[in-house]
């Protein structure tokens, strides 16, 4: 990750961490964000979304470009009894997130695909949190 991105993150209040953040004991938070709308880009893994939604403080929206992955996530969330607090949907446009500017409290990136990082920053609220899976390998 380059220095300018780190400087931007520190100035905006964003938190960039690996997946270990969600290993903390209750009360479960995301980088200092204690509730609100959380978007997870990449729906291969829905365990973190399930844990967060069970707190009752987060509304989780999982997004993925693959409809088969979305269907699998939907089934998992339904079987966990949390569909509604957490939902999964296919991305209509791979490079665009379906939200207005500054509306999402936290973004969990499991997969970036064709999504420009600037699109992720566009939807985050000031002081919002950005969690990046180590497998993405931002430079």
Molecular structure report:
The chain is of the alpha/beta class. It has a single domain (3-136), classed as Rossmann fold. Helices cover 27% and strands 25% of the residues. It has helices spanning 3-12, 47-54, 67-79, 117-123; strands at 16-17, 36-41, 58-64, 86-90, 104-109, 124-132. Strands 1-6-5-2-3-4 form a six-stranded parallel β-sheet. The longest helix is centred in the middle third of the chain and has 13 residues, at 67-79. The model is unreliable at 1-13 and 17-26 (pLDDT under 50).
List the helices and strands and how they pair.
Layout: H1 3-12, E1 16-17, E2 36-41, H2 47-54, E3 58-64, H3 67-79, E4 86-90, E5 104-109, H4 117-123, E6 124-132
Parallel strand pairs: 1-6, 2-3, 2-5, 3-4, 5-6
Keywords:
single chain; 139 residues; alpha/beta; Rossmann fold; 6-stranded parallel sheet; 4 helices; 27% helix; disordered N terminus; SAM-dependent_MTases_sf; Methyltransferase type 11 domain-containing protein
Summarize the entry for a quick read.
This protein is an alpha/beta fold and 139 residues long. The protein contains four helices and six strands.
- Compute the separation of the termini in Å: 4 Å
Annotated CATH homologous superfamily: Vaccinia Virus protein VP39
Structural class: alpha/beta
The parts where pLDDT drops under 50 for at least 5 residues are 1-13, 17-26
Q: Numbering strands along the chain, what is their spatial order in the largest sheet?
A: 1-6-5-2-3-4
Query: How many discrete domains?
Result: 1
Helical proportion, percent range: 25-40%
H/E element order = HEEHEHEEHE
What is the typical, i.e. mean, pLDDT? Answer: 82
H/I helix tally: 4
The CATH architecture category equals 3-Layer(aba) Sandwich
Please give the radius of gyration in angstroms. Answer: 14 Å
Count of strand segments: 6
Shape: globular
Beta percentage is 25-35%
CATH top level is Alpha Beta
